[in-house]
Write a sequence for this structure.
């Protein structure tokens, strides 16, 4: 089981990887690929931000006192500015100079922000909560991310609001939290998964039994 630091860092690396893919597509002049990697990257950033805002920053506020609140506020402000820039990026044409410039600005500020989390935030938080709690937080963080769609779903454009990237970026964190609260809890899912191991529906046998019953 990974710790919170490991999970967060893994995500950060994922962002840098997608950005590298984007840059390579740009170097070879493949606009379609640039658009695809930029999209993958922006969704990843947005999902990651939601996960941190729901799981990580509240932990910092709870366990690190004034310092934690200060760091969390600062981080949320930086998220907000990245979100606004991602929002703007959506309105620009992939392949254009303007698009690429904004992408560079986004990634520069994000790099700084991510480094802060890795260098300042998590090294303070992890010892304060202990290894077990860190691992549990990592699980919640991953679960939260799983509930955010990995990409826009073309079949259901407006439901729920964050099925689209812009909807997700605009949604207040409380609204997202409420949405998640409408899903089964981890505990409930555990029971369901346990039961699932023993499920073995024999379609042919039950069909035959039903038919025999009808006769
Ligand atoms: Fe962050
Ligand atoms: Fe982060």
């Amino acid at each position: 089981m990974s710790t919170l630091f490991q999970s967060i860092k893994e995500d950060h690396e994922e962002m840098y990887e997608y950005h590298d893919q984007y840059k390579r597509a740009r170097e070879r002049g493949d606009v379609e690929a640039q658009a695809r990697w930029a999209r993958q990257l922006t969704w990843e950033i947005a999902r990651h931000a939601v996960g941190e805002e729901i799981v990580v920053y509240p932990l910092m506020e709870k366990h690190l006192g004034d310092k934690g609140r200060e760091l969390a506020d600062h981080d949320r402000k930086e998220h907000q500015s990245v979100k606004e820039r991602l929002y703007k990026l959506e309105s620009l044409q992939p392949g254009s100079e303007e698009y690429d410039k904004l992408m560079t600005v986004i990634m520069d500020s994000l790099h700084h922000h991510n480094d802060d989390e890795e260098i300042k935030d998590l090294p303070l938080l992890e010892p304060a909560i202990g290894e077990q709690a860190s691992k549990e937080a990592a699980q919640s963080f991953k679960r939260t991310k799983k509930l955010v769609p990995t990409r826009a779903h073309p079949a259901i454009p407006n439901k729920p609001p964050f099925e689209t990237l812009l909807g997700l970026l605009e949604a207040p964190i409380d609204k997202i939290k409420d949405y998640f609260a409408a899903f089964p809890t981890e505990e409930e899912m555990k029971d369901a998964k346990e039961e699932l191991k023993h499920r073995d529906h024999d379609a042919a046998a039950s069909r035959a039994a039903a038919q025999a019953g009808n006769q």
Observations:
- DSSP finds nine helices and no strands in the chain.
- Residues 54 and 177 are 7 Å apart (CA to CA).
- The mean pLDDT is 87.
- Residues 4-186 form a domain with the Four Helix Bundle (Hemerythrin (Met), subunit A) fold (CATH 1.20.120).
